[in-house]
């Protein structure tokens, strides 16, 4: 999957029904700390879940690895980074963003934490990092 350089934010949300329309909610954190302004119009892309399960929890086939011509993740496995946790994911993990809005999931971190991490897993659109130093 190619991620545009114009990406302003990346988050997970549910699509909810509201009378004659469907609604997605943008987390307050994305507006307060990001480049999104209320009242402006944005292009929205909906991407299927990446956890390997469909909506019923059944395993589904994974997409093939990214083609070499697509932008590569800005981090590598075993790389250390200093990050600030900007948000909390649905499962309670900390979320940090680095170059081009690329997401690093940091289990055990809270919003506002500034931590040194070691990247333990890298996917095309997110990485997972383990805390190796609580505060920097």
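^ structure tokens above, recovered residues below v
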């Amino acid at each position: 999957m190619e991620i545009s350089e114009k990406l302003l934010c990346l988050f997970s949300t549910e699509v909810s029904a509201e009378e004659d329309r469907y609604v997605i909610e943008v987390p307050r954190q994305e507006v307060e700390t990001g480049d999104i302004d209320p009242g402006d119009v944005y292009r929205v892309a909906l991407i299927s879940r990446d956890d390997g399960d469909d909506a019923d929890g059944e395993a589904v086939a994974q997409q093939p690895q990214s083609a070499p011509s697509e932008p590569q993740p800005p981090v590598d496995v075993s790389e250390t980074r200093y990050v600030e946790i900007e948000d909390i994911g649905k499962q309670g993990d900390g979320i940090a963003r680095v170059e081009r809005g690329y997401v690093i999931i940091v289990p055990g971190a809270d919003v506002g934490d500034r931590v040194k991490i070691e990247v333990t897993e890298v996917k095309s659109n997110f990485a997972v990092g383990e805390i190796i130093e609580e505060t920097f």
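The helical segments are 28-33.
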